[in-house]
Amino acid sequence: MPTPEEFESLHHSDQRLLRTVDSLSPEHWREPSLLPGWSRAHVVAHLALNAEGFAGALHGLATGNPVAIYPSNEARNAGIDELAAADTDDIRERLFTATQHLRTVMAELNGEQWESTVNRLPEGPVWPAASLVESRQREVEIHHADLGLAYTHRNWPIEFAKTLLDSATATHDVSPDSPAFTVRAMDVGRDWPVGAATPVVVGSASNLGWWLIGRGAGEGLSAEPGPLPALGPWQRVR
Question: Where are the domains of the chain?
């Protein structure tokens, strides 16, 4: 079962995101985000629908009627495009309502229900229900930065950045498209091996995390010996 600290950390991430979304001007919504092909409206629409999907799957555990987070990848993508084209007040309201609903559903699950699993799609993959708290915070923090506004990856809480490094290095470690290396977060004094002790990519936890998830070109990082390794794609793109 997720800890109270994990729930509280997600709540703070949610509140930071909602403040940013609430401050968006009409022009901001339709401008490009940092994600190719997505406006800021697409990013917010995705976050709203992701919260709805997580809430639906967790509510299914509570009621004994399992449901996948998304009915299909095609339906997920079409839903994002449809909502992104809606009136911006409607997109904002969907995000705010879905965020609160997900928080309510999470608070109502008992320990046994948290020990169960949910499906991302009807055919899988299968995820531990308890992992959705961390997964949702990852969605919120990464895509908050993807809006390309005042909140950037450098504003990530250090504990989130460390958790992201756990996840992202594990993904690259098993990827046939990524080389072997180690990352060293100087601000937390810790290494994350990705299959080899060298080369060592050095930087802050947030800059390392941003690079590992395929954002930017490794700004603020150095490799010993250089240059920076050429990474394969990170599977959790959006």
Answer: 4-151, 158-224
CATH number for 4-151 (one of 3.20.20.70, 1.20.120.450, 1.10.3720.10, 2.60.120.260): it is 1.20.120.450
**Model pTM above 0.90:** yes
CA angle 24, 25, 30 (to 5 degrees): 90
The pLDDT assigned to 236 comes to 53
The rounded distance, in Å, linking the Cα atoms of 14 and 59 is 20
Q: Contact, 231 vs 178, CB < 8 A?
A: yes
Average pLDDT, the chain: 96
> Does residue 220 contact residue 228 with C-beta atoms inside 8 Å?
no
Tokens standing for residue 237: 């793109």
What is the total residue count of the chain? 238
Residue 32 DSSP symbol: B
List pLDDT tens digits, range 23-40. Answer: 999 999 999 999 999 999
Give the pLDDT of residue 238: 34
Question: CA-CA distance, 191 to 69, in Å (whole number)?
Answer: 34
| Segments in the chain below pLDDT 70 | 236-238
pLDDT at 158: 98
Beta bridge mates, 184: 191, 202
What pLDDT is recorded for position 23?
A: 97
158-224 CATH fold: Nonspecific Lipid-transfer Protein; Chain A (3.30.1050)
Distance (Å, whole) CA 158 – CA 224: 24
- Could you give the CA distance from residue 38 to residue 227 in angstroms, rounded to a whole number? 30
